[in-house]
Design a protein that fits this description.
With about 140 residues, this protein is of the alpha+beta class. The chain has helices at about 1-35, 40-85; strands at about 100-105, 115-125. The longest helix is centred in the middle third of the chain and has 43 residues, at about 40-85.
């Protein structure tokens, strides 16, 4: 649902921020400790530390992308299911008197799903337009 998705997105953003802060501090502290233990090699350590900080941002970008893909996986699964569904042939019958009557129409996605509408009846005259919309459009 939309609420669950929002919670997952908020948790993933919090995780990304916490991870970002943790690794920034870790790189800084490790560099400081190494420089204090080996002051004669401080130039090399500064270079390695700088490279670690430069590589850190793209690495976090990749991690963020992987988290986003994981969050989108249920939607991707549903799209794959929809692509694999049998297509309904498009056959049309010419309407003679200009009126379409629908009587007690019910619809649901499958037997386990609730009805989207049940026993719906209506008439459409020539030129009328009917839109049925829901959460997904």
């Amino acid at each position: 649902s939309q609420i669950d998705r929002g919670i997952v997105e908020a948790k993933s953003i919090t995780f990304q921020q916490a991870t970002s802060t943790f690794f920034s501090l870790l790189i800084s502290i490790m560099s400081l400790v190494i420089v204090l233990l080996n002051p004669e090699r401080s130039g090399e350590i500064a270079l390695i530390s700088s490279m670690a900080m430069i590589l850190y941002s793209p690495t976090m970008g990749i991690v963020s992308s992987l988290i986003n893909v994981a969050n989108l996986y249920p939607n991707i699964e549903r799209l794959v299911d929809l692509v694999g569904e049998e297509q309904i042939p498009k056959t049309f019958t010419k309407i003679q008197n200009g009126i379409v009557n629908v009587d007690r129409l019910s619809y649901r996605y499958d037997n386990a799903s609730p009805y989207l509408f049940k026993n719906l009846s209506f008439s459409l005259k020539e030129g009328d337009t009917l839109f049925i919309t829901g959460k997904s459009g």
